[in-house]
Amino acid sequence: MVERAGKEEASEVGSSVRGVRAKLFIVITILLLVQAGQAEEAGYELLWSYETDGRVYGVAISSDGSYIAAGSRDNKVYLFNRDGDLLWNYKTGDKVVGISITSDGSYVAAGSRDNKVYLFNRGGELLWSYEAGNWIRGVSISSDGSYVAAGSRDNKVYLFNRDRDLLRSYETGDNVLDISISSDGSYVAVGSSDNDDRVYLFNRDGELLWSYKTGDKVYSVSVPSDGSYVAVGSRDNKVYLFNREGELLWSYETGNAVEDISITSDGSYVAAGSRDNKVYLFNRDGDLLWNYKTGGGVDGVSISLNGSYVAAWSGDNKVYLFNRDGDLLWNYKTGNAVEDVSITSDGSYVAAGSGDNKVYFFANNKAIEEAKNAVELEKSRGFNVSEAESILSQAEDAFNSGDYSRATDLAEEAKSKAESIGMEASAATTAVNKAESIIFHERYRGFNVSEAESILSQAKDAFNSGDYSRASELADQAKPIALDIDGDGTPNDADFAPDINNYLIYTGVAFLVGLVVVSIASLKIRERRRLERQRLEDVGHRIEKEEKQRKEKMKQDILDAIEEVTGGEK
Fold this sequence. Notes:
This protein has 570 residues and is of the alpha+beta class. It folds into 3 domains: 2-40 and 369-493, no CATH class; 44-368, Methylamine Dehydrogenase, Chain H (7 Propeller); 501-570. The protein is elongated. It has helices at 2-40, 366-380, 386-400, 404-444, 450-464, 468-483, 502-566, and strands at residues 44-51, 56-61, 67-72, 76-81, 86-91, 96-101, 107-112, 116-121, 126-131, 136-141, 147-152, 156-161, 166-171, 176-181, 187-192, 198-203, 208-213, 218-222, 229-234, 238-243, 248-253, 258-263, 269-274, 278-283, 288-293, 298-303, 309-314, 318-323, 328-333, 338-343, 349-354, 358-364. It has a 4-stranded antiparallel β-sheet with strand order 1-32-31-30, with no helix packed on it. Helix 1 (2-40) runs antiparallel to helix 2 (366-380) and helix 2 runs antiparallel to helix 3. Strand 10 and strand 11 form a beta hairpin. It is built from 7 helices and 32 strands.
């Protein structure tokens, strides 16, 4: 009877294992599908757009996407926050063609065709302006706003500190077409036009470290955070990479003029856009990692600090976003030619300026996507993730209402909650299965495990209600009870009386032993008392006998004395 019951339960355990395997297969399949979905869709969305009164020539975004600066043909400098609120605008004397912002958005530098360089603080206060000999083609500000570099059609490079002191100006051989300053302001790279066709590198003091003549105009220059490299794009169709000492490390010829260039913070990757309609990505060694053909000339590129994302804009009026592997993650068509694009350090946000007079701001809602994936994964495993789903719903509502910071925070909280639930549920599953196995084993051996079964039943109820912490706690309680059903600290298999608490047996034995000891002691005392009484009685009898003998002797002695006195007369 016991053997048949054991076989039936073993069959149930086997079915349970097969069920677990089936669930595991489903989970793996879902994971693969989720990963495939992530590869096809990056989850970027247009958060907002703002229409100015003219073409938007330039945009710049702070490292975390909190602030977006723009320069427009309507002669204005604009600053927006991440939610699309216009914080301020400032009207210059002509078109604003150059714009740059510090990492934290504290300062904005602008260059205008009114020949002036401008520096503003985050509040929109004009800190200073400087008038050059011709209009400003480009500006670049150091990460903390300590230095501002500008290039002008007067053939000069200007370097200022935050207080407007002109540290140095240097005259090149022709118009300055582009300028780039390292994060700490230590190095400034410059590209010049027709009659010069050179790339220049200056130090912070304005000293020329070296120059190199390319085959045509230098349209674009870009330096990493420490100025250790200089990337160059030229109308001679080539991409160049130099080290800080001016040594040409490599060059690559594209199919047309290279309009724009962008290098990562450590110089590991270089992105380029060419009039041959292609976006290119190279590594530091000059290996072409990939190229992608768009529907028009690629006039600009922007790469995230670590090279994970590349944003580009093309003559087909589109903004493109690629990952490091060259996969097209997303594109968006604006109402006219895109003039400029800027991407945040981690690729979470992209800003664009277009000939349709608009500033566009896009966000990668990957935090929400990751939260969704985490929630779906745990649901597929059969776990109760209602709490995480509720937080995720709040994140989606916040995103849809434009509160992107709160949306991100809530999405991360939802993901964390789902993962936490998954870990708790997995631990509870292990605990319940272990307890179930132990109880089955002990019951099969004939022990009464009803108390442990009752607690395990409560654990399963807690698990099914989603209280995984309580389920683990109860399952952990059931295990030792099943292994020691009488709770005396001795495992069932080592207990000579597993159904009776050994403490009771030991206590009873100790009581009996004590009772015997007490009884023996009592008997001994009574015996001692009897012997003492006997001794006393013997002593009394002896004394009494001795006294009688003494009295009789005295009597005899008296009689003998009388007889002697009387001479034997009676």
